[in-house]
């Protein structure tokens, strides 16, 4: 993409136009129908601007570039001089050429305007978005706004912090002749507030013991992060008094890479004191008397051997442990080219017409990239390229497109309430990419809204996965997905979900504090914060996924029934022949199985996907859902719906739960019948079973296994004329076994 660059440095010796004996100069750059101005420098005849402008080639159609210096007045403006360039004569610069040197140009007069004086220093050239001046320039297709430029953001490094509350000593109750009921409250202050409490304990010696473990998520840097510990006394319902508190800076917390023991420490607990107690403490210190203090025993450490989950495990982009010393070298390089979008739908109205101000966000690992915002274009072109180091090929790259709603000059309150609209999202799993191959493809941008599924355009991406170490990238497939501590010392599932939510809140708040901010609604959409909320549509889609996986088993069962039914006699005879060979030579079973799988995989290679898959509307059942289900899916927590709607949804959920309950009950019944074979709940059934087992043992001892296997196979594959169509005897016997369902209330 070609751009016309204008770098305005400074001016000197400008003419005086104000009564104060000076001027308020600014520069106006005009080419065709494009016009932009620099900042106004008040009361200065030798102003310095140091501004760069980049005008896209498709935004102008003119023969000349005019650079005019004006004097800013309250009403109107006064001419100070101008310089003109012919577009055809402007030099073209191609990196890695050195930057074009700025030059002094004498300001010229024009027509009946006042006589020009002075000189202006500037440089003009034609380049591309690869020019090093482009990221810092005010760009025409971004509305000349500085905060619409491309930016790179980094997720803060997250740690798990483990806190073990052992006990406390020397607690002083607020009331005499009373044994306090104590609990320890641990609160993490800072970007994301996290609170945990121990159980309530009563101890006659005023030394309660808890022995409870708590987990927190913390983010670097730790300069403003503290762990606030309070020991509370339960005085009544919703009434607690503080027996002592301590404030522990996270900078003092030790770190560990493995599960080596960490020594417990005693921390002094301070009480809130009145003026009399403060005076007494000062007097004791002056006399050199040390006062006994309450204290609490804690084990605190930062876990560097775990990976902090801040996104869904199904499409995570990073699996490395927190501590850099445990990182392995990268196995590949990911290159992403964000070419542009096409066919975008209008997202808002400006000046009485529909428009879209689109920008793109890509996320992989801790690195987020944001393209510049292309204003007022339904087919924006970004042509930006980014790279990432890949440590695990079984990770996912996420690319989202958004409409910028913060380009309208308005009050601060209104700007804060505005949210960037979602245009669509694409996920690309790196393991589906062939190494060293360039994929160039257009992906549909599909969004599910309350009104239904909508297609809002297409995005064109170029993706390439370049292999660095081919052996290591293959080895990654046989290594654990997460660091080894997740398997040696796993967390409780309930803790994992709570920690994931805390990590997401920290990432959202940190990126929102950047400048320009990566807004909360953008980060939430990229991380799929609401993926764990209840959705009737998603539940049906997951059930269909399970059914589709087992459809191959159903097809195999249908094929076997056709074989048993002699639908194709030649095929059935061949199956008999193959079965006899495998029974007589059992050492051929496993080689034959693996050879068959190899042939299937080789045949399916012809039908491999040519491009990474995109969001599937049919798989998601986005077109097969109704407005009521979508309204429930987008209903926030807590709900704001009327009691009638909530009652209707509750009844529907109860009906669904009833069907699930029936399926679980049937499964439990079948499993209990296996236990009933030998537990003598039905004496006659158990007698029949154990006598059959005795007879089977005698027969199997006396008869070679190959003979038994051939007889069973021939009986199973017998001709339909030797079948009566009734259920087999073992199934009849199994269905008559008792279960515990008849003794349930």
From TrEMBL:
Please state which protein family the record places this protein in: Belongs to the MCTP family.
Q: Tell me the membrane topology, using the record's own terms.
A: Multi-pass membrane protein
Q: Does the keyword Ion transport apply?
A: no
Chain ranges passing through the membrane:
577-600, 688-717
- Name the source organism: Ceratopteris richardii (Triangle waterfern)
CDD domains for the chain: C2D_MCTP_PRT_plant
Q: Which SMART domains match?
A: C2
One Gene Ontology CC term in the entry:
membrane
Q: Where in the cell is it found?
A: Membrane
Provide the protein name.
Answer: C2 domain-containing protein
Q: What is the lineage of its organism?
A: Eukaryota, Viridiplantae, Streptophyta, Embryophyta, Tracheophyta
Under Pfam families, the record lists:
C2 (PF00168), PRT_C (PF08372)
Tell me which UniProt keywords the record has, alphabetically. Answer: Membrane, Repeat, Transmembrane, Transmembrane helix
Which SUPFAM superfamilies does the record match to this protein? C2 domain (Calcium/lipid-binding domain, CaLB)
Q: Which segments constitute the C2 domain?
A: 1-105, 141-267, 315-443
